């Protein structure tokens, strides 16, 4: 494997800029990305053609799904997920919820990247600055250098303070990746979605996926990264 393609995408429960629930548009954007690993946020567990939404997305893209709902309801659970075409070696679901705030979490997964162990942590952080500081501290504890060959943290960080402590801590740990605006999708100016890789030299490219379809399918653009293996 020469390269590994990663993406993170807040799918907004497959509700587009026109307020229409159209999961097939999300499928098409995922196919445009053609990623080996995709972190999804705001996965609402609707039923689509007799299937759970995440299972529907997995079947349509040919990827394997790992669910990690943060809100468990009698119907339509809600939260994070990963889609991947790589063999899965380990899955750890992490609760990042703080008292009095919306449930948040992360998926800590180890994948087999053609003989290289790839640790991917995918998350969706809280809305309050002090909440994100606590959550980033917990996320950094998940990375133990030497347990894998490549380490990835990606997701919707909800961090709009460019010089805030969460981003400074993450840049210090992983080194700074490119800054790509992904929100709002139609005219993006905020880099809410992020992707870090260690070792940094393996991160060849990061870019917002700004196709015409992606601009209307969710309120976020996907963020795509290429790793040299």
Automatic annotation (TrEMBL):
Arranged from A to Z, the UniProt key words for this protein are: Endonuclease, Hydrolase, Nuclease
Q: Per the record, a Pfam family?
A: Exo_endo_phos
Domain spans labelled Endonuclease/exonuclease/phosphatase: 7-220
Alphabetical list of InterPro entries matching this protein = Endo/exonu/phosph_ase_sf, Endo/exonuclease/phosphatase, GPI-anchor_lipid_remodeler
The answer to keyword Hydrolase applying to this record is: yes
GO MF annotation list: endonuclease activity
| Annotated GO biological process | GPI anchor biosynthetic process
**Would you name any one GO CC term?**
membrane
**Matching PANTHER family, A to Z?**
CALCOFLUOR WHITE HYPERSENSITIVE PROTEIN PRECURSOR, ENDONUCLEASE_EXONUCLEASE_PHOSPHATASE DOMAIN-CONTAINING PROTEIN
List the protein's name: Endonuclease
Native organism is Nitrosospira lacus
